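Support request from a user on the community tier.

User writes: "When I paste my structure tokens into the form, the page sometimes reloads and wipes my input. The last time it worked, I copied everything first. Here is what I submitted, just in case something in the input itself triggers the reload:"
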């Protein structure tokens, strides 16, 4: 028997099957369209995502001649904050999903911030007012799409991050689909009280969101229901937002343990145990996970919007490379960045700045600069942004991070990982299973169904594959980082 993980990310959907050792035995992946209706707007087609989900499940099973009968449970992990509204009678979305990177809710955030500022809801939710989170996206849809407010009042409208949309469809959709989310996804909406793990009535009222449209909040690891399609008869037993899933897959179960995931964006999470730690340095306070009825575990998080997406942009918009994997070879053509710095504030700056007025900038260009320098500057931008979050995390927690566990698609890039270790001045460690997001979802589902007995079982599965140690001298690091800081300041105040 195996555990299936559905990993629904920003650019693609995957299904991976894991064995008892936590090793992947088969997988299938399919990209979905990125829709850009206007500058700063990013959308996905929820129907395409649902169709791709069914396809990758079928493909993964077929590759090694399995059926649903071979699957003990399924876990779901998903791009967080991406917002779907659908009509419960027809099962059809009423609008494209608004993606977490989308900036259209800036005016709503500014209006909400007139009373109480950017931190108006932070004490309850752990989050600043920012276009990143789901709540303001719901408000925008209700205010701008005709008849939605009436549909909500009539009780026919449903909201979900992508996890809720998939669970509802997997468990029957219009024929009895269950409408739930887990506490990690709920904690990314700007609508959930971190301590009660319930939707906050006051915030809902202020944002004009009827509570009837929201899913029930459940733990991250329990049997929620049974699949009626795609994996008929298989229990859905784990849900974790993608970054919390990576934390869980990296087995960061003790306070002070941290990981960084290099995907479309970069997300560093540190386990703070059963304690809510409010940040003074631009980080988010979020749910790490909750197993069944046990006490919830909290995290500090540093969210960076554009990292892997920058490589895609260089591929698709500048056409400097044909495949994302080619960027390392291009960057290695030069020994350094040639004093070129790339600030990828395409959706503003996230942690630790939270500046929606910033925009992307390439600085330091001279006739000396080449495509290789731009490629190298893009990779280095990932490491610099991570350093900023790393420093904020140390300042907030008082914990000296002596190493960093890393995962995600970009960790195959050895040039980036070495530069990351140099800039952080601590070792960077990649596990044998680098796709820890899917693994974390599998672990949550497997714990709920007895496939794994406890977290100690999971700890035994974690193994180091590669470690990079700092090699660059301190003076060079300080010079590069100070130039980066200067470049970041130049990217601000672009949007009036």
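"...and here is what came back when it finally went through:"
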């Amino acid at each position: 028997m195996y555990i299936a993980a559905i990993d629904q990310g920003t650019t693609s959907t995957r299904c991976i099957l894991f064995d008892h050792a936590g090793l992947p035995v088969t997988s299938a992946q399919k990209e979905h369209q990125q829709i850009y209706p206007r500058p700063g707007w990013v959308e996905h087609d929820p129907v395409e995502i649902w169709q791709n989900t069914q396809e990758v499940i079928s493909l993964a099973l077929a590759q090694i001649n399995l059926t649903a009968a071979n699957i003990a449970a399924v876990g779901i992990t998903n791009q967080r904050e991406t917002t779907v509204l659908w009509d419960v009678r027809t099962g059809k979305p009423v609008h494209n999903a608004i993606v977490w990177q989308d900036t259209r809710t800036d005016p709503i955030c500014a209006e909400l911030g007139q009373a109480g500022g950017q931190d108006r809801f932070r004490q309850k939710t752990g989050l600043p007012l920012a276009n990143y989170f789901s709540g303001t996206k719901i408000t925008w849809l209700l205010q701008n799409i005709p008849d939605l407010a009436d549909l909500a009042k009539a009780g026919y409208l449903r909201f979900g991050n992508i996890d809720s949309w998939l669970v509802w469809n997997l468990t029957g959709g219009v024929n009895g689909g269950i409408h739930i989310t887990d506490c990690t996804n709920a904690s990314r909406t700007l609508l959930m009280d971190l301590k009660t793990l319930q939707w906050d009535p006051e915030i809902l009222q202020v944002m004009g969101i009827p509570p009837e449209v929201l899913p029930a909040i459940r733990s991250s690891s329990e049997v929620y229901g049974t699949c009626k399609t795609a994996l008929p008869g298989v229990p859905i037993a784990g849900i974790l937002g993608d970054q919390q899933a990576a934390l869980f897959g990296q087995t960061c179960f003790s306070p002070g343990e941290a990981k960084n995931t290099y995907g479309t964006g970069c997300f560093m999470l540190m386990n703070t145990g059963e304690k809510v730690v409010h940040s003074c340095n631009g980080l988010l306070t979020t749910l790490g996970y909750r197993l069944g009825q046990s006490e919830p575990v909290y995290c500090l998080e540093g969210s960076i919007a554009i990292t892997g997406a920058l490589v895609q942009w260089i591929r698709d918009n500048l056409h400097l490379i044909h495949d994302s994997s080619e960027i390392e070879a291009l960057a290695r053509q030069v020994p350094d960045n040639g004093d070129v710095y790339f600030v990828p504030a395409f959706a503003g700056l996230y942690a630790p700045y939270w500046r929606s007025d910033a925009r992307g900038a390439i600085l330091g260009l001279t006739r000396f600069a080449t495509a290789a320098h731009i490629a190298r500057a893009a990779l280095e931008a990932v490491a610099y942004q991570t350093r900023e979050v790393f420093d904020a995390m140390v300042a907030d927690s008082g914990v000296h991070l002596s190493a960093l566990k890393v995962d995600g698609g970009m960790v195959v890039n050895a040039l980036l990982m070495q530069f990351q270790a140099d800039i952080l001045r601590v070792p960077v460690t990649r596990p044998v299973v680098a796709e820890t997001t899917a693994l974390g979802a599998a672990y949550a589902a497997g714990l709920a169904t007895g496939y794994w007995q406890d977290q100690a079982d999971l700890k035994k599965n974690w193994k180091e594959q590669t470690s990079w140690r700092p090699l660059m001298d301190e003076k060079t690091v300080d010079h590069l980082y100070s130039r980066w800081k200067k470049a970041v300041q130049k990217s601000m105040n672009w949007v009036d």
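Agent notes: The reload is a front-end session timeout and is unrelated to the input. The chain is about 35% helix and 20% strand. Residues 134 and 189 are 4 Å apart (CA to CA). Escalated to web team.
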